[in-house]
Amino acid sequence: MKDKQNKEITNRDVDFARWYTDVVKAAHLASYSNTKGCIVIEPNGYAIWEKMQSILDSKFKETGHVNVSMPLLIPENLLRKEGELVKGFAPEVAWVTSGGDKKLDERLCIRPTSETLFSDYFASNVSSYRDLPKLYNQWCNVLRWEKETRPFLRSREFLWQEGHTIHETKEEAEAETLSMLNIYNNFFHDYLAIPSIVGKKTEKEKFAGAEYTYTVESLMYNGVALQSGTSHYFGQKFSKAYDIKYLNRENKFDYPYQTSWGVSTRMIGALIMVHSDDYGLVLPPKIAPKKVVIIPIGNDLEILSLANDYLDKLKKEGIEAYIDNSDKSPGYKFADAEVNGIPVRIEIGKRDLENNMITLVRRDTREKMQVFTNTDIIHDVKILLEDIQRDMYDRALRRREEMTYTVTDLEEFETIMNSHPGFVKAMWCGNAECEEKIKEIRGTKSRCIPFTDEKISDKCVVCGKKADTLVIWGIQY
Amino acid sequence: MKDKQNKEITNRDVDFARWYTDVVKAAHLASYSNTKGCIVIEPNGYAIWEKMQSILDSKFKETGHVNVSMPLLIPENLLRKEGELVKGFAPEVAWVTSGGDKKLDERLCIRPTSETLFSDYFASNVSSYRDLPKLYNQWCNVLRWEKETRPFLRSREFLWQEGHTIHETKEEAEAETLSMLNIYNNFFHDYLAIPSIVGKKTEKEKFAGAEYTYTVESLMYNGVALQSGTSHYFGQKFSKAYDIKYLNRENKFDYPYQTSWGVSTRMIGALIMVHSDDYGLVLPPKIAPKKVVIIPIGNDLEILSLANDYLDKLKKEGIEAYIDNSDKSPGYKFADAEVNGIPVRIEIGKRDLENNMITLVRRDTREKMQVFTNTDIIHDVKILLEDIQRDMYDRALRRREEMTYTVTDLEEFETIMNSHPGFVKAMWCGNAECEEKIKEIRGTKSRCIPFTDEKISDKCVVCGKKADTLVIWGIQY
What we know:
The structure is a homodimer of 477-residue chains. Chain A has helices spanning 4-7, 16-26, 43-62, 76-79, 83-89, 115-125, 170-190, 237-241, 266-275, 301-316, 330-339, 350-354, 377-402, 410-419, 432-439, and strands at 30-32, 39-41, 66-67, 73-75, 94-99, 102-110, 134-143, 157-167, 197-200, 212-219, 225-235, 246-247, 253-254, 257-264, 292-296, 321-323, 344-348, 357-362, 368-372, 404-406, 423-428, 445-450, 469-474. The first copy, chain A, has 477 residues and is of the alpha+beta class. Chain A has three domains: 4-275, Bira Bifunctional Protein, Domain 2 (BirA Bifunctional Protein, domain 2), CATH 3.30.930; 285-392, Anticodon-binding domain (Rossmann fold), CATH 3.40.50.800; 404-474, Translation Initiation Factor IF3, CATH 3.30.110. In chain A, strands 3-7-8-14-11-10-9-22-23-21-20 form an eleven-stranded mixed sheet, with helices on both faces. Chain A has a five-stranded mixed sheet with strand order 16-15-17-18-19, sandwiched between helices. In chain A, a hairpin with a 5-residue loop joins strand 10 and strand 11. In chain A, 50% of the residues are buried. Strand 5 of chain A pairs antiparallel with strand 5 of chain B.
């Protein structure tokens, strides 16, 4: 059943890690580079990133944010101004020690994140409450010196956006933190067809330097969790450390309240690991850079003219489509469209056409449908794209629900994580030692404390003491 | 005449360099950062860059190019594979020597440009003529350890796009080199309203490692030239150095022909230095992120409703507009619109409105026009935007023509450059020593050899020997 392009993809249920890298390679999403731990994002992968950028960017702008560009390099003394952030990031930054073949007086680190730079900028550019809020974002590259790397999921350099805002009041900043989390969560649901969950990180898992961190967590096909986006509330920590002082409405000096939030090319990894299969990439139509491929079978003039007719009509409807008129065999073209995750394929063949039929194939289920040419094919395609988007979400949701376990017993917790991991709901007393204990189960970490009143018992799953907090736990990438 | 926002702008004719940095600051385009030689591109500056990106990116895509992302860091041995490139760039790169607080076995440089990375990628991803051409581009940051820096014109880190293509034949690659030059040149003419000139660089001034370099050169208000974009033809130099071998149509191993081309945030500097004035930024409408500002004078309900009506109508026409309804004085708002370079201002005042009039103000000439409210104001604004775009180009062209001199005598050359510099057309024998000699005149360099048969004499302006080549010379940024 498999053609050249996808026959080299490992079976997903046999070796998930190899399957993942096989799909990345076969769909030409990324390639390893000779810069250790860094990837080349190839055209197919980058086009997905551009689609993600354009959707998110317009949502950021609709909510009043503007884009800026901060420097790539951070002087060491600037990085060291906020203690917790340094502790969190210092072990994983890259240092520039010479420039223009001269040794530098002060080392510069390549930004692992830009709280320091934004804070420093705000400090010299905000002086009055009239300057607030500042709602800034940047799309850029960052670098973290990871030991183990994997395309999109964890690489030394990655692309992301980082929003950084400062506000007059705590309430406003907290509302921003939550509102950006919701933008991310909606993006996962509405575009990526990923039924992510949201909540608050525990103290141990929050971002270095944040007062608290909200997170979007997704569950991959193999039951491993992926932190997919975060939104941090800093209170006045950074504004005090970096001396972002301003004159408030009472004409007194005050420090603004700060947030930051980010998502990265890691989302491409999530897309693959939630939706793709043994035939290659499967993309939700709303995020697919190309939604429809038209494959003429043979060089018959009638076939080619119908193909062009469909292409024109699809384009007029704003549906990204293309004709595969390469000199490859039809079988090759079908497999190519599959491995690259084109959501809908239109096959136009001579015999079919004699019966006034064409074939529509949906990528997600690989289901074939014969359709009469005298019906409104474009309308059919539109409906099909919507169906695929909805069905992909529903399947992912069903899977997530099947893989979400409610546990009141530590042994059961262990059994689940060792046999068929997923999200585990269990009560927690709030003690960091109990959290540490759970880490012994295949490195399981708290994913988040969901925004819910759900209680499944009144005892901590580890120590048995009184517990008010429901935590969702999981193995993580 | 000047208000708070623009009163701190130095007179352009008194001190051009200070005027430039004053405009950058007053229009909130960029700000100095605490990372030496690197700037923060602020929202107003970044919005111009986004506009440039979106126009150019669609032109690249229309011509078959796709975007990718290459690593930021280049291992030293990879950089050193092509000798001339290394010689050109090694003195101005920044070196990463430790990562995660461990000393690295091999230094990594921050990309000053990415020929090496693209070539390395092509080497492992191209094997047959069927894989050609590759028409790649990336939007990214690069770093060059400049000693003297200036916002947008020359900074250690800057943003740019770099296209990198490989082709089966010399002819195809050379056509690409020229075609990308034309895309740049048209962009300067049609959008930036800058009458740039194009041509070939001399051997001395070409890109390190290129067989030849085409260039877009613009003339600033003060007569100084700015290299504004380049397109390089590499022949097989890099493909041989990096071993990009492929099987050609005769089933023999061959090396592809390569190009690269780029423009950067330096274009923002060009926009400022060609068009702006003592009142701040002046932007050609086609590149202005916000084209129209509506300023209601007073809080009269009729005024506000008319302002909203205009805003809706402009938006419907796809014209980016906004209402300035801050609590500032009208005078402050007018000056604010001026300093920020909003091409058209609509003032709606009570007294005017009683006479069924409003006022339109064009930023470029600061001319005021009273218009009856019962005419089609939106149509008037559209025409005005077109007029401004055309007039700005025409004025810049006239200035360039006035500042372009034809010279056959070295003394005259010197007099011009010392009193009122500009583009100087003079004949050149082709000898590098003569070129070097001209550099003694205030550092004047050859800008380009234009694509023309024009000959103004048959003698080299320096040595008096036979000369076939017309060169355009200039002082440069």
